[in-house]
Amino acid sequence: MSDGAYSYSLTTFSPSGKLLQIEHALEAVNHGNSSLGIKATNGVVLAAAKKLAPLVDETSIERISNITHNVGAVFSGLSPDFRVILKKARKNAEKYRLKFGEEPSAKVVATYIGSLMQEYTQAGGVRPMGCSVLVAGFDHKHHVGELYQIDPSGSFWSWKATAIGQDSLTTKAFLEKRFRADMEIDDAIHTAILTVKETYDGVLTENGIDIAIVGERQTGQGDSAKVTPIEFKRLSVEEIKAYMAENE
Amino acid sequence: MSNIMNHNGAAMLAMMGKECVTIGSDLTFNTGMQHQGRVFKVFPVTDKILLGLTGLFSDCQTFYQNVMYEVKLLQLKEGREIQPQHFGVLVAHMLYEKRFGPYFIEPLIAGLDEDNKPYIANTDTIGCLTEPDDFLVCGTAAEKILGPAESFWEEDLEAEELFEATAQALLAGIDRDSSSGWGSVVYTLTPQKMVTRFLRNRQD
């Protein structure tokens, strides 16, 4: 059964040195719903467009998911592939917590997903993942946000703000113009909504977008100032609606 | 002398002070009723964590190698030092992994975290973690050190006073245990430095 050419990986170098299956996987990503991430001074915002057939119940679609209390991810591309990644990443994060008594940082999660994606480009009997992933987290020790992109090839790197999926080039160009290093979470949410709106086909409502945040919130002034962590959380439809109303 | 935990003999004591910890250990190495020589039973993990291991010394050496594999891998992967609190969980986790074929060791951990908060902990052979905020005893002389340690230890001792308390309690305990002795060593860990001092106790 395991004999013959078919037991080898389908991902084989072309004579020009390319891995065509990986490039095709990236093509699948570029056809997927668009997602974006923005680093703010006190957190990170993830957003994703939910462009669905008219009769689909949008509330049943979760584009953004949490991996630990402080790390979450969004994807563009094939959602079933992302589900596999999510399941494995969550298991790995829980194993890490069991072993060291603390949750892994976004970098550890991104590294793990990167290794996983790489494995699917080389192992036998599998195909590369058809999705790119943005991982967001917050380092409460140093008070900085973390935002990573992982591609089907397994390569991963960090962004201040980026977009993946459909129209990602246009979206990235828009973000380049809109990004400010001194933005707080609230400003970043507004920028995220504007950015999604830019390439959204039709009228964007609160049901057509998924938003999640992670970071910290400062309350009080002077001596009574206190920093409270915000765990990774998806905004409710009501919250998104309120932010969109502010944008008008 | 039929208990494998008492085969090699050991006396160990860790104390917590104000931004400092100490860990003291004897140096004896026995096989049953025979004395063989001297060994060090406290091992460095990072610049600010020490791991003392009592019990079967061969298991101590193997466990130290295995735990350092994990610690160094974490350092390489994440580019940061493991913190004492997380090291405690790691040790407990690794011991419980061998729940039904355990290492015959009782580890003692002492360290300072990145905020220089002192931390001491120990576990039983299968990784039940204890994290007190005063002192801990381990080894064949454990019961004999416990009493002196209770009377010498005070809250918020400075490094020098803490060393004195540790050394006195350790010496008093060792003198009442035939399985431990042959000199002792006390490590005093402060945010600035680690001081190693050898004690000459009874050589029999």
Automatic annotation (TrEMBL), chain A:
Tell me which positions the record assigns to the signal sequence.
none
UniProt KW Cytoplasm keyword: yes
Does the record carry Nucleus as a key word?
yes
Q: Which SMART domains match?
A: Proteasome_A_N
**Alphabetic keyword roster:** Cytoplasm, Nucleus, Proteasome
Instruction: Give the coiled coil ranges.
Output: none
| Domain Proteasome alpha-type subunits residue range list | 6-28
Tell me where it resides: Cytoplasm; Nucleus
Name the source's superkingdom.
Answer: Eukaryota
Supply one GO CC term from the record: proteasome complex
For this protein, the record's PROSITE patterns field holds: PROTEASOME_ALPHA_1, PROTEASOME_ALPHA_2
Q: Which family does it belong to?
A: Belongs to the peptidase T1A family.
Subunit comment: The 26S proteasome consists of a 20S proteasome core and two 19S regulatory subunits.
This protein is called what?
Answer: Proteasome subunit alpha type
Species in which this protein is naturally found: Blattamonas nauphoetae
Organism classification: Eukaryota, Metamonada, Preaxostyla, Oxymonadida, Blattamonas
From TrEMBL, chain B:
The coiled-coil segments of this chain are: none
On whether Cytoplasm is a keyword of this UniProt record, the answer is: yes
Membrane-crossing residue ranges in chain numbering: none
Name its cellular compartments. Answer: Nucleus
Q: Which InterPro entries match?
A: Ntn_hydrolases_N (IPR029055), Proteasome_beta_3 (IPR033811), Proteasome_sua/b (IPR001353), Proteasome_suB-type (IPR023333)
GO cellular component terms attached to this protein's record: proteasome complex
Keywords (alphabetical) are:
Cytoplasm, Nucleus, Proteasome
- Keyword Nucleus set for record: yes
Q: What is this protein called?
A: Proteasome subunit beta type-3
